[in-house]
Amino acid sequence: MRIGSGRLRGRQLHTPRGLATRPTSGRLKKSLFDTLATELESARVLELFAGAGALGIEALSRGAAFVLFVERSRQAVDAIRTNLMELEIEVQAGIIKKDVLSALLQLADKKEVLDPPYRARTEGVILNTLDSKGLVVGGGLVVVEHHHKTELRERYGCLSRLRELTAGESRFTLFRMSE
User: Fold this and answer.
1) pLDDT at 23
2) Could you report the average pLDDT of every consecutive run of 10 residues in the chain (179 residues)?
3) What is the pLDDT of residue 18?
4) Number of structural domains found in the chain
5) Which of 9, 81, 146, 157 could form a disulfide with 150 if both were Cys (CB 3.0 to 4.6 A apart)?
6) What is the pLDDT of residue 36?
7) E strand residue ranges, the chain
8) Residue 6 and residue 163: Cα distance in Å, rounded?
9) Which domain does 172 fall in, by range?
10) What is the pLDDT of residue 123?
């Protein structure tokens, strides 16, 4: 897996072995980042279910200021750490090794400011938690990757569906937090 664009373009990423993580297709990732191009400069990004951290690292490559990765798999966390160190961007990132809902509750308690596993069907719970715990700033974006047949609601609290991008059996649904 390689970084597609930005200052780290073409650099190779380490990925954990096995089937515990599933990379986002290159075509869908390109569509997402082309859509988010103007939103990324100096953004703070929360990548849930991070896997090897490819989406967050791509965001850093394209101008994001900071990415917080949340992943519970030890092998995936090790891959994220290796990628961050080899790319010399570890100061722009943090890692929480926990399940997503526990991590969201921890972040809500600290008042700190999504790419869920395929077919996990946790999207609604996570969107409601992000909204109810105040983890998305006004005007902020939430991106949910899911199976194209999974239908998400128009609204989850103050999060409103903005756009959908589909490639093959995968879909990104973008939500914006009301200002």
Assistant:
1) 65
2) 90 78 72 86 89 92 93 94 96 93 78 44 79 83 85 91 88 87
3) 62
4) 1
5) 146
6) 86
7) 44-48, 66-70, 93-96, 141-147, 155-156, 159-167, 170-177
8) 23
9) 26-177
10) 78
**Count of all residues that appear for the chain in the document:** 179
Asked if residues 79 and 102 have their Cβ atoms less than 8 Å apart, the reply is no
Whether 136 maps to a domain, the answer reads yes
Q: CA-CA distance, 20 to 78, in Å (whole number)?
A: 13
Does residue 21 lie in a domain region? no
Q: 29: number of CA atoms within 13 Å, CB side?
A: 19
Contact of 143 with 173, CB cutoff 8 Å: yes
Supply the pLDDT for residue 104. Answer: 85
Whether 51 is in a domain gets the answer yes
| CATH number of the CATH domain containing 128 | 3.40.50.150
User: Tokens 């100061």 — which residue?
Assistant: 91
Number of separate helices (H) and strands (E) present in the chain: 5, 7
| 69 domain residue, yes or no | yes
What would the two tokens of residue 144 be? Answer: 């949910």
What local confidence, expressed as pLDDT, does residue 95 receive?
95
The 3-state secondary structure of 115-140 reads CCCCCCCCHHHHHHHHHHCCCCCCCC
Look-up of token digits 């921890």 = 106
Reduced to 3 states (helix: H, G, I; strand: E, B; else coil), residue 48 is: strand
Closest Cα to residue 161, out of 137, 148, 143, 147?
Answer: 143
